């Protein structure tokens, strides 16, 4: 028979571990803000993180240090130390008084030995420990006093530590309880242990902290948090979620898939049927069944019946007259006769094979007001949606600031906005989009642009040019003109451009109005918190012709 025994967690039970997937979820929130894996882990160690789905928050090193300092302050507010060494000073005086009497008795008042003893005794010393050390080599005439002095001498080093401690912290002790020597030493040792642990935490030396220190110096939550912080990177490695790459720690494909799934769940969870954002397409694709939805058969519909629901309709129709028979008993084993009114057909969506390019603004202004995190979450969600639900589709992400570049799927979780790049080169992003669509043709090519500013950089020939807006609230005329020229090229290729604006400045609204007029796409102004829903609806509706 198995027997379980329970006891209070004391910091030594290594079984207290963190689910690596929960740690990855917390890590991904920081990756959305543009931090690398190593930067995100360091931030989590320093600042802590909540555990989704659990009533527990992992305290970071800064919080743990604050907890340790609070304990030190409590001790300082409890005790005063102005009389901590009086006991030893009195013991020394008593020993030396007896030795002086012995010296006078043995050698007389004018002896050299007595004069040397008195000179040592009345010499000014910097500390009580120095006064004791001054008699280390003295040959005591009073044997009993000499034995007591040796005991006192054995305490000199510990006394010196207390005196040095009081020089540094003595003025901070303002409590009502006067500490004697032993109490003062205990307080010193505890405060020094707290300071040493705080120093180790500040320097990231978590592994140096022993289970005994965990148990004695930290609260239960603090001790558990420190265990989790210490093992954070190891647990993620062991779970196959991070690994060492050429540039440092990086996410594994398993971690990237989970982050994409989480982003999709957050974005897709806000969607509602028939919200604005769908755009029409010209070619009907294959009809995909919707097993969760059916409707009554109508004349002219394809005979794609849901057999189970059709039979249930027939049984319900038959049950009504049968129930009216005597006793409410009906016949069993009879064949089920179907009528057209019983037919229930499955709903389906006509989808198309699509090529989609998401142009993601990486200019420094995207770091404001949560814009970049929202846009990045959408990019991850769309990437995961396409790879899992529409594997035959082509989906690409192009990042742009002063220059544009393609962002590979494995790079997407760690992509950051371009610090120090204030310009917006949408023209090059659309040029790169055109090349990607040309290499991956489909009947439904589309570009989704997420931006918070008008174009301010462009290419003329092979020369890169940047152009600040002309005056407050003005536009960058050459950048706008060259960008619209590229919009018209994509329009001639049959590419739809939908734009999601994260700012409602007049210059951006004016530019996007010209863009949509030239391309006949759609434009939306949305807050970062709503961006995911709008973009996701637009992508899904862009793949459907109509419900069959």
Summarize the entry for a quick read:
The chain has about 550 residues and is α/β, with parallel strands linked by helices.
Please, could you describe this protein's structure?
- The protein contains 18 helices and 17 strands.
- The chain is α/β, with parallel strands linked by helices.
- It folds into four domains: 20-78 and 191-251, no CATH class; 86-168, no CATH class; 287-324 and 335-349, no CATH class; 352-547, 3-Layer(aba) Sandwich (Rossmann fold).
- The chain has a six-stranded mixed beta sheet with strand order 11-10-9-12-15-16, sandwiched between helices. The chain has a three-stranded antiparallel beta sheet with strand order 7-8-17.
- Strand 15, helix 17 (506-519) and strand 16 form a beta-alpha-beta unit.
- Helix 4 (86-107) packs antiparallel against helix 5 (112-122).
- The longest helix is centred in the first third of the chain and has 22 residues, at 86-107.
- It is elongated, with a radius of gyration of 39 Å.
- The two termini are 63 Å apart.
- 33% of the residues are buried.
- The model is unreliable at 1-15 and 272-288 (pLDDT under 50).
């Amino acid at each position: 028979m198995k027997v379980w025994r329970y006891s209070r967690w004391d910091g030594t039970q290594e079984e207290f571990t963190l689910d690596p997937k929960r740690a990855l979820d917390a890590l991904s929130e920081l990756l959305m803000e543009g931090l690398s894996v190593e930067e995100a882990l360091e931030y989590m160690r320093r600042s802590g993180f909540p555990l989704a789905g659990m009533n527990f928050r992992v305290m970071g090193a800064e919080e743990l240090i604050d907890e340790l300092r609070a304990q030190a302050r409590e001790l300082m507010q409890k005790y005063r130390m102005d009389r901590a060494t009086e006991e030893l000073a009195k013991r020394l005086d008593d020993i030396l008084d007896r030795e002086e009497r012995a010296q006078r008795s043995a050698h007389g008042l004018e002896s050299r030995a007595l004069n040397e003893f008195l000179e040592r005794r009345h010499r000014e010393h910097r500390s009580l420990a120095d006064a004791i050390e001054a008699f280390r080599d003295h040959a005591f005439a009073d044997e009993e006093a000499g034995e007591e002095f040796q005991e006192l001498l054995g305490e000199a080093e510990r006394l010196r530590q207390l005196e040095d401690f009081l020089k540094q912290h003595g003025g901070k002790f303002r409590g009502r309880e006067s500490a004697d020597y032993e109490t003062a030493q205990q307080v010193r040792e505890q405060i020094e242990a707290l300071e040493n642990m705080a120093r180790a935490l500040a320097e990231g030396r978590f592994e140096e902290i022993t289970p005994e220190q965990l148990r004695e110096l930290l609260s239960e939550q603090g001790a558990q948090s420190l265990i989790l912080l210490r093992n954070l990177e190891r647990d993620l490695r062991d779970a196959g979620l991070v690994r060492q790459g050429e540039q440092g720690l990086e996410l594994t494909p398993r971690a990237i898939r989970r982050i994409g799934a989480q982003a999709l769940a957050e974005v897709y969870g806000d969607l509602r049927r028939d919200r604005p954002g769908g755009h029409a397409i010209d070619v009907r694709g294959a009809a995909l069944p919707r097993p969760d939805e059916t409707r009554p058969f109508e004349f002219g519909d394809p005979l794609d019946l849901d057999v189970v629901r059709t039979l249930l309709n027939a049984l319900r129709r038959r049950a009504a007259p049968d129930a009216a028979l005597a006793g409410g008993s009906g016949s069993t084993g009879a064949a089920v006769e179907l009528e057209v009114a019983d037919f229930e057909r499955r709903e389906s969506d006509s989808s198309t094979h699509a090529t989609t390019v998401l142009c993601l603004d990486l200019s420094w202004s995207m770091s404001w007001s949560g814009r970049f995190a929202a846009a990045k979450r959408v990019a991850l969600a769309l990437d995961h949606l396409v790879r899992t639900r529409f594997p035959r589709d082509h989906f690409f992400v192009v990042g742009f600031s002063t220059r544009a570049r393609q962002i590979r799927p494995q790079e997407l979780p760690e992509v950051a906005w371009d610090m120090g790049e204030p310009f917006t080169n949408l023209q090059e992003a659309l040029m790169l989009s055109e090349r990607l669509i040309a290499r991956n043709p489909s009947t439904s090519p589309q570009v989704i642009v997420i931006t918070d500013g008008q174009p301010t950089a462009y290419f003329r020939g092979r020369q890169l040019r940047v152009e600040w807006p002309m005056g407050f609230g003005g536009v960058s005329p050459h950048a706008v003109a060259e960008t619209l020229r590229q919009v018209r090229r994509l329009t001639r290729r049959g590419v739809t451009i939908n734009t999601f604006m994260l700012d409602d400045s007049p210059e951006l609204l004016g530019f996007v109005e010209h863009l949509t007029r030239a391309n006949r796409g759609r434009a939306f102004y949305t807050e970062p918190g709503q961006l995911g829903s709008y973009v996701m609806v637009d992508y899904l509706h862009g793949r459907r012709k109509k419900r069959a």
